[in-house]
Each structure stands twice: as structure tokens, then as C-alpha cells.
Known about the structure:
single chain; alpha/beta; Dihydrodipicolinate Reductase, domain 2; 5-stranded mixed β-sheet; 26% strand
Amino acid sequence: MVVGTTGHTEVERAELRKISEQIPMVWSSNFSTGVNALFWLTRKTAEILGPEYDMEIVENASSSEKGRSQRHGAKPGRNPGRSAKQQLHEIVRHGREGMVGERSAVEIGMHSVRGGDVVGDHTVIFATTGERLELTHKASSRETFAAGALRAAQWVTTQKPGLYDMQDVLGL
């Protein structure tokens, strides 16, 4: 089974987890191979650079995009943050306005832009005194998500029962 929908209730998520005990299931909110590589590169880069680098994420999608900012990567269970022990919702700061004070060492800034017919652009910025590293993925066609879902469907047929995500499909 391949599941790509989002917005499940906790009861529905529990039911999907139970089903995955009987059959192999890939459950991902984003099937783009490129954006999933970006998620992996982001975690690896955060490990390498360490907390001395501030981390900011800028997401750009169509003005008709439904859902909330930066839903990709936070479900189900892959944290783009600095540590697997941290929950993304605990360290994300959406946008900045007014006198927000000094940034904490673990804070991740999240900025969402909506406009036009952008399929999906994601940039992760690591910045410290004297240098900045930016990782960017840009989707120019929704076909990339369909191709990734097909890749997941082919991969899952050879797996044992369990709950997998696109990172598993890609061997990351």
C-alpha cells in the first residue's frame, strides 16, 4: 500500500499503523525524490555544521496550495531538525515580526510564501558569521510526485510488512 494523503486524525493514523503490521506500506506526505533527498541532506548538513549555524527554511508554493506551512518532512516521523530527539513543532518559529528577541540555539525559522502557480520550492539556509550555505529544491511539474509514488509502489512490493516512508524507498 502507498499512502500520500495528509490530514489524518490520530485514530486514522493508528489504523494505518495497524494495517502496516500485516502488509508493507509506504506513507509519505511528499513523493518527490529530489525533495526527499533535500530532507536527508538537511539533516546531514545540520549534523556536520552543528548548532553554530542558524537554520532557516523558506517554502514557496502556489497561491491555491491548501494546508499549513512546511507540512512536508514533518510527517510521518522524519524530522529535518538538528536532532532526532527534538520535535519539529517545538523548535520551529514561523515567520518573524516585531521585536522577537534573540534567537535560541535550537530554533529553526520557517517562512512560507504563496503566489502564482509555483509547484514547490524549498530552500534551507544555514548561516553563521562569515558564511552561508543554502540547499534548494525546486519542483517545476507535479509529475515528479507521481513518478516518486510509482517508484514507491514498485519498491514496496518487495518489502516485508511494516511502515516505510519515501526516505526508506530511496535508501536514505
